[in-house]
Amino acid sequence: xxxxxxxxxxxxxxxxxxxxxxxxxxxxxxxxxxxxxxxxxxxxxxxxxxxxxxxxxxxxxxxxxxxxxxxxxxxxxxxxxxxxxxxxxxxxxxxxxxxxxxxxxxxxxxxxxxxxxxxxxxxxxxxxxxxxxxxxxxxxxxxxxxxxxxxxxxxxxxxxxxxxxxxxxxxxxxxxxxxxxxxxxxxxxxxxxxxxxxxxxxxxxxxxxxxxxxxxxxxxxxxxxxxxxxxxxxxxxxxxxxxxxxxxxxxxxxxxxxxxxxxxxxxxxx
Length: 270
Fold this sequence. Notes:
By secondary structure, the chain is α/β, with parallel strands linked by helices. The chain is built from 11 helices and 7 strands. A 7-stranded mixed sheet has the order 1-2-6-5-4-3-7, sandwiched between helices.
């Protein structure tokens, strides 16, 4: 098996990605697409070896990182290549940046999670990843009072230089993003879709404003549609980027409460 990245060059938008970064990106895709290797196992490997490429080079020693040697054997079959190459090809013309786990731009707070993503696709102001952040989340079917409260709090946080993180859904999320955009701290939207897929479609204008004045973030491959199972997965990133989570209205069984539970497990204030 070779661990070299495909020879096809990235587009002009990716000209700043040198050979080392491309090699590391290809290695990250190998980990992401290896069957049976979940986010926690990937994280163990990244922490133990220091980078995705070093993890691939050291696959005979995965047991030292607490990862079953059978998963290393699966990686060696190369079964991951087809789907990894599809993601690689989708990224070549993407107007976004890949932030990898080992890079300085990767959010330090997020990196501490036991299931931190191998990489993030980002569109917008990358400097916001280094800002202190607070998540403001809540119901998609929020009351006018709830939306007003979310907007008031998000606007205040952003005015103080604190970045507001949310999920760009209807209701509370949208109110929080809109109130924070244009202020000092601005806002980060964590998507449950690919970085190039605005969702819900009715929020396309907000998506464009976030790309221009804030930051869009996704761990999913470009083109990934709005799959129900992906939204609980992305919620750990909303809380993982944040020092704390503010909940403004939530149903008893909702994604908002999932995010709150994850935040408590991550040691965040709720």
